[in-house]
């Protein structure tokens, strides 16, 4: 594998490492710095729905099943099972005049379950999209209003939790 310098890859990597990590990252086509977690957008069915302060619960697990093989006492086989999404996706943002999330939750409470695709977009330092995940067929299962305190001057925050049928990088 040659990196374009006309000598073997091992030598190229050794030379690049000696020159610094940014040059190595550039030569490999990688972003040298991790993305920052505060620069993100949330879309619901293609519409930006507000400036969120927190998005939590973006996780997936593969269930495993143990299988004991007769006569084999050294270990237990762990077989892969289905994917599960152990927590709801929680969206938090400052309470505004927009009632989109509240109305969606109210409709679900009334039995009108409209599933929507929700996309979380992580942006780089220049504000351009760098990574994204689309949750399929999401709908709200919990709405929480702001904690109101007379001795505080913080922003009033509403929270909505969504369940979904899985997600994938968009």
For the structure shown, list the relevant keywords.
single chain; 170 residues; alpha+beta; Pnp Oxidase, Chain A; 8-stranded antiparallel β-sheet; two-stranded antiparallel sheet; 3 helices; extended; disordered N terminus
Description:
- The chain has three helices and ten strands.
- The chain is α+β, with helices and mostly antiparallel strands and 170 residues long.
- It folds into two domains: 1-33, no CATH class; 34-169, Pnp Oxidase, Chain A (Roll), CATH 2.30.110.
- It starts with 8 loop residues before the first helix and ends with a strand.
- Strands 1, 2, 3, 6, 7, 8, 9 and 10 form an eight-stranded antiparallel sheet that branches.
- The protein is extended and about 65 Å long.
Write the layout of secondary structure elements.
Layout: H1 9-19, H2 21-28, E1 40-44, E2 47-48, E3 52-56, E4 61-67, E5 77-84, E6 89-94, H3 100-109, E7 116-123, E8 129-144, E9 157-163, E10 167-169
Antiparallel strand pairs: 1-2, 1-7, 3-6, 4-5, 6-9, 7-8, 8-9, 8-10
Helix pairs in contact: 1-2
């Amino acid at each position: 594998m040659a990196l374009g310098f006309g000598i073997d890859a091992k030598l190229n990597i050794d030379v690049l490492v000696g020159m610094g990590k940014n040059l190595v990252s550039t030569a490999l086509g990688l972003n040298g710095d991790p993305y920052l977690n505060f620069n993100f957008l949330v879309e619901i069915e293609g519409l930006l729905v507000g400036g969120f302060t927190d998005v939590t619960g973006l996780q997936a697990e593969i269930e495993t099943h143990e299988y004991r093989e007769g006569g084999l006492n050294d270990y237990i086989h762990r077989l892969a099972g289905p994917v599960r999404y152990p927590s709801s996706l929680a969206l938090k943002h400052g309470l505004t005049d927009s009632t989109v999330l509240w109305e969606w939750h109210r409709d679900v409470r009334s039995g009108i379950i409209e599933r929507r695709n929700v996309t979380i977009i992580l942006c780089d330092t220049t504000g351009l999209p760098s990574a994204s995940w689309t949750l399929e067929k999401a709908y709200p299962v919990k709405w929480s209003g702001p904690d109101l305190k007379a001795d505080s001057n913080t922003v009033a925050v509403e929270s909505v939790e969504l369940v979904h049928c899985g997600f994938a990088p968009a």
